[in-house]
Each structure stands twice: as structure tokens, then as C-alpha cells.
Amino acid sequence: MPDGTAARLDGDVGLELLRSMWRIRVFEERVGELTRADEVHGLVHLSVGQEAVAVGVCGQLRTEDAVYSGHRAHGHAIAKGAPLGRVLAELMGRDGGLCRGLGGSMHLVDVEHGFLGATGVVGGNVPLALGSALAGRLLGGDQVAVVFFGDGAVQGGVFVESVNLATLWALPVILVCENNGFAEFTPRSAHTNVERVSDVVAPYDIERETVDGNDVVAVRDAFARFLAEARQGSGPMLLECLTHRLRGHYEGDPQRYRQALAADEWQELDPILRLERRGVSDGWLEQDAPARLEQDARDEVEAAVLFARESPFPSPDMTAALVYAT
Amino acid sequence: MARELPYIAAIGEAVHQEMERDDTVLYFGQNLGLTDDDPYVKAFGGDRVRVTPISETAEIGMAVGAAFAGYRPVVQLYMSEFMLVAMDQVVNEAPRFHAMTAGQVKVPLVLQAGYGFTAGWAGQHTGTIYGMFMGIPGLKVVVPSTAADAKGLMTAAIRDDNPVILFHNYLLTLEHGDVPEGEHVVPIGEAVVRREGSDATIVGIGWTVGKALAAAEQLAGEGVGAEVIDARSLAPLDMATILQSVEKTGRLVVVDQATRHASAAAIIAAEVASEGFATLKAPVELVTALDATVPYSEPMEQYLLPDEAKIVAAVQQVLEAAPVAA
């Protein structure tokens, strides 16, 4: 079965989706290397394999739409427009980072690009997005709020509290679940008997859909429908994207709890290869274009590495100055 | 012009006046604004005054998200213990964001939380838990002891650009006091000397300030001049005022409705031991609740709590102690 909708994908859109996914893929792989080299020194969670969700969703948003993420946030931040160099500088704890090196991988925030916040405690970000949606409504605009979370967050009480409250107040917030089948190190089956996250919200009678989250066009199309409705002021909606976390929960995770996919299995799942195959067969992507796209991404990421390495570490006098807002 | 108001009404007046003054002030909580003739709903409408489900985590988290967008939510929690179910938002989201984002966001949020209802409310609704929140960088904690301060500190809390917990004491709910009619702001972070004296310093917090003043009155009859300080703000804590008093008296008694270990009283004693040791003429005495869960039975409640007699005895003890320094 072909990926995405039956309708022909616009070639320019397809290329942009590919560029964006490559940017995240190469960035994440490079962060993995820098972590092993101890240039990135903290706890890091990579989103290799899940790029289609970040790209399919964020590519359609405006700067003023607030996006929230969790501990696996690099791809979401990049897809929302955060500059690669500033994201990497943040991971390296440098003053040139998005949060001047004080937030780190799990707390990327880029207010300028409407990336409101990554929180490190699973599920803690969901009610924050409700607040942005409420603020948007009170301000009278058509901006929406989007929150990314994993399937592990769904078993937390705050998830149900938030779905209930968002439904009760009809807040324009789109809940995007990246269901990669693992809550940290544990398979979903060990956490709950409810297989589909979209079924968890069934009693609330909200718009909900489960899509192949490694098919960027399917993610994009489903999200576009929800987004159009949220812009009209309705909500919440839940989009469940079934995806695959290629790497461990964190960098260094020995992953004794699962079998790695065989190379051919991954080739069938890889959201980048899938869109490239489609582009070639649809005729908007030349045979040698994928290698060029990958190289472009590598060049961008290497420039980011240089930027981050040149950035100084933050100064200790920032600490006291930032305890309270003045 | 001042006139008499009950302590709890003074807090309500501050919220009402600030909502009148500033359209960004919102008021959320359980069981509030339920009828059209509710004074807040009548004056400010259902957009700004909202009843919430019993979902503290979502409620507070949503308020934090709205604060990111520039709103100033006041969350009425009634019982401070209800915050305990939302500790991630209170401790690990709201106060962390300003520093983690290097100042990109501010969180002007007020949590109104009643404490210490030792009037038959038993083990889970009587806790004096403000000490738990003193050591959270970025979080402010205020504990008014008078009706005027209740209004002034609530006003300051709403205008503050940081998350502030206002702990109001339930035993003081209907205590009347002179309250200024118009704008009244009590700066956060300033203790106040309630009674001057030169023989010993008694520091009270919230409800225990009245007990300390009564004890000082009794001691005056015995020829002892006790200086009584109302801490008012626990974070930031005004140690300068306390140290200055101890420099004069050389003797310190700290009175706290909370259990002794890890209490605000213990912190104040430690600060004085560290910064004012040379001025002390006797070991510091703490008059706190016993380290036990508050029992239901009335005589048992009384047994557990600090009272005038215990404060008087503690002051007599610091006066009788042999000088510390040779």
C-alpha cells in the first residue's frame, strides 16, 4: 500500500519534509557521537526514527502557536524553527544555547520560535499546553497549542485530568502522542491493557485518530484536519502516531529489554527512506537527490557543531540573577 | 482609610481589587464562582473566574501555562495539602522555568493555600507545610498573620513576576483587623517587628505571631522585655531583621506551628547560629508542634501545638541559660 493519502503530494512540500527530517536525523546522530566523545555531557534522549511526527506536525504551525515537548525534544524544537547551532550549544552547556546552557537537553525552550517548553518529568507538560490554549482564547486570536508526549505519559493521572479539563473548556489544544511502544524501558503491554492511546480518550468524545507515525504524509494530513478545526476555536483533539524509537531510551542505554530491528525491517519503517521511495516513484525526487539532501543536512549540522564549540560556557554570576524574575 | 475586616475577607478584597486593576489577573479554583451573583463572576465574568474539577495538577499546570503567556492566575486551593497532589507543577515546573530558560519566561502565579486548621480537621487537613516550600529556588512563600498583611501580601503576590504561595491560616480566618481600604501592598521578603523589647527575641510565623505577642505581654508583667518579629515571608527570608534583633537581645526563641524537624523554625535557628553566633548569649530555643501527625481529639490537638505557656517557658529558659561565649 502506498504511503499517505491517495492525492499526489506536492513536490516542494515533499522536499521540505525530507530536508526537515534529514536535519533532525543527522543532528541526532551527531549528538550521539558528541555524547560518546563527552562533548555533550548530560542525559540525552534521541528521537532517531521518530522524525516524521515532529516534522509532520510542526511544519504546519505558526510561530505564535505554542509547542510543548518532553525529555525527547530535540526534533520538536528543530522542527518548530529553533536554530541548530543554538540547540546544540544548549546540549553542550554553552552560553550560546537556547537557554544559555542552563536548561539542557530535557528543557529546551525557544520562546522566539514558539517552542514553549520541554519538561523532564513525564506528563508534566500536558497541562502547561492547556494554559497556552486558554491564553490564546482569552487573547482572542486563532493560535493553537500543541503538546507532544509519549505513550508512557498516558498512564499518569495528569493526562486524564488534562484531557478532562481541556474537553470541559473546549480548549484549542492538539495532543500529539508519539507511541513508540516503550515507556522508557518497558513495553506498553507491561503498563496497560489499553493498546491504543486514542481509545483511552474515547469516553470524552473528542476528535481522535491513530496514524502510522513513520509516514510523514499521514501525520501531516491528519494533523492538518485537526489544526483547521482548532484554528476555528474547537478542541481538544488527540493524534496518536505509531512510531519506532531506533535508539535506546537514553544515550548509553544497553537495551537489554528488546531486540534491535533487522536492517531490512528498519528500511521498511524508516520515515526518510519511505518518503524518498515515494518521491522517486511519484517523480518529484531525482534518484541522486537523497544523497544531496543528506549531505546538505550534514553541512548544516557541522556548522552547528562549530558554532557550539566556539560558544563560551555561561558565567556563574547568572545563577543568582536568575533565581527570581524581576 | 482603614476599617475592620476579617482576615479571609482581606485576602478576597486584594484579589478583587487586583482583578479590577489588571485584566490579566485570572481566578481559578474548585467550588468557586458557581452562581451568577458570585461577586467575582458578576464583576469579571466567566472567562476570568473559573471553577475547576478536583484536578490540582491540571489546574495548577494550566495556570502555569497561562502565566507563560503573560496572564496572572490566582489558584484558590483552599487546603495547602491539596498542593501535595500537584507537587510536580508546584515544585518542579512553576519555579524552575524562569531559571532553566535563562529568563525567557516568567511565571506570575499565585497559589492560595490554607494551612493549620487544628479545629477538628484531623490528620490530613491540618498540616503546617510551608517549610517544605522554603528551599525551592524561584518559589516565594508568604505567611500573613494579620488581616492587613493578608491583603497586602496577596496584592504583592499577584503583582510579583514569580510563583508565590500565600499560606493563610485557617484558625485566623475570622480574626478581624484594621485593613486599608484602597491599594495596600506589603513587600514580599520583609519581616516586621511587632513589639519591641531588649531581653529576648521571639520570631513567630503566621498563627504563632499572635501567640508570641500574648506571651510577650505576659512576660512584660514579669519585667521581661521580649521583642516579637513576624517573619511574614519565608522565601525570601528576611534574616537581616532577625539578626539585628538578636544582636540587641542576645537570646532567640522561634515559634512555629509546624513540626520541628526540617521546619522554618529550624532554618531560622541555623541561620542565626551560622551568622549571629557571636551575638548569642544562650542556645536558641524552638517552640514547635510535636513531631507527630495532628490528632483529631481536641485536647490532643492542644497538647501537640505551641501555646503561650510553652513560649513563656522557652523565653525564661533562654534568659536563665548561662552565657554561651566566655
Keywords for this structure?
heterodimer, A: 326 residues, alpha/beta, Rossmann fold, six-stranded parallel sheet, two-stranded antiparallel sheet, globular, B: 326 residues, 2 domains, seven-stranded mixed sheet, five-stranded mixed sheet, 37% helix
Protein described:
The complex is a heterodimer of chains A (326) and B (326). Chain A has 326 residues and is α/β, with parallel strands linked by helices. Chain A has twelve helices and eight strands. Chain A has helices at residues 11-36, 51-58, 74-79, 84-91, 126-139, 157-168, 197-200, 216-231, 263-269, 271-282, 289-310, 318-321, and strands spanning 66-69, 115-118, 145-150, 173-179, 182-183, 186-187, 207-212, 237-242. Chain A has one domain (11-307): 3-Layer(aba) Sandwich (Rossmann fold), CATH 3.40.50.970. The longest helix of chain A is centred in the N-terminal third of the chain and has 26 residues, at 11-36. Chain B folds into two domains: 2-180, Rossmann fold (3-Layer(aba) Sandwich); 192-320, 3-Layer(aba) Sandwich (Rossmann fold). Chain B has helices at residues 7-21, 39-48, 56-68, 87-93, 97-100, 147-159, 207-221, 239-249, 264-275, 298-304, 308-320; strands spanning 2-6, 25-29, 49-51, 72-79, 110-115, 140-142, 164-169, 176-180, 192-195, 200-204, 226-230, 233-235, 252-259, 285-289. In chain B, the strands form three sheets. Chain B has a seven-stranded mixed beta sheet, sandwiched between helices. Chain B has a five-stranded mixed beta sheet with strand order 9-11-10-13-14, with helices on both faces. A two-stranded antiparallel ribbon of chain B has the order 1-8. In chain B, helix 9 links the parallel strand 13 (252-259) and strand 14 (285-289). The longest helix of chain B has 15 residues, at 7-21. Chain B is globular and about 60 Å long. The N and C termini of chain B lie far apart (52 Å). Classes of the chains: A alpha/beta (326), B alpha/beta (326). At the A-B interface, helix 5 and helix 6 of A face helix 3, helix 4 and helix 5 of B.
